[in-house]
Amino acid sequence: MIDHVLSEYVDAWNAGRRPEVEAYLERVPEPEREQLAARLDAWLTVAPTPAYPEPARRAIRADPRLRAALAAAHAPAGPLLALRRRAGLRLEELAARVVAAFGLAGEESRAAAYLERLEHGELDESRLSRRLLDVLSTALGAELRPAPPAPAMLFRGEGEALAAELEALSRAALEPAPPPMDALDRLFLGGPEG
């Protein structure tokens, strides 16, 4: 059964029909799906790219799954990632060191998520705690310094422009306050004294 379904998938792929792996996995009994998935994965690793017509190429480029995968693969990595790799640490190991240094047992997964966001430039470095930077410096064998704070935004305008700016500020002031920060949040988001 597996050989037959795999053969049909390969034929559909080579014909440029863009077969969905999930649909072919559902064609075999549950106990055999893992084996078929492994064989499909092995084949897709060496599969030739079909000669898709232009409409199919446009559809592939527009596919949100492809866009998300490409964005993740090409996300810019900051210097923290390079330092962590140079130190030979996995993300989880660095997170465990941060959590241990601050006595935050059980927060390893959240710390790893914060560190990953930091590595990919998704966190404002000026909001990192000096205490956190000290722990990271020790763990990574490099001196990490606080980033300068972002310049304050100044509002200037006249007439309608000023009214629009004041309206925007009023709306922002009416937004609900963010939830209170816990100890881990303060390390990553609370500013240099956090």
3D architecture notes:
- By secondary structure, this protein is mainly alpha-helical.
- The chain folds into two domains: 2-70, no CATH class; 79-149 and 176-189.
- It contains eleven helices and no strands.
- The chain has helices at residues 2-14, 21-25, 30-46, 54-62, 64-73, 79-86, 91-101, 108-119, 130-140, 159-174, 183-189.
- Helix 1 runs parallel beside helix 3 (30-46), helix 7 (91-101) crosses helix 8 and helix 7 packs across helix 9 (130-140).
- Mean pLDDT is 83; it is low at 73-77 and 150-155.
Instruction: Name the beta content range.
Output: under 5%
The best one-word shape is: extended
Number of strands: 0
Give the class from helix and strand content and strand pairing: mainly alpha
Summed up, the helix count is: 11
Integer-rounded radius of gyration: 25 Å
Our measurement of the CA-to-CA distance between the termini, rounded to an integer number of angstroms, reads 60 Å
Counted up, domains total: 2
Q: Helix proportion of residues, in percent?
A: 55-70%
Main beta sheet, described?
none
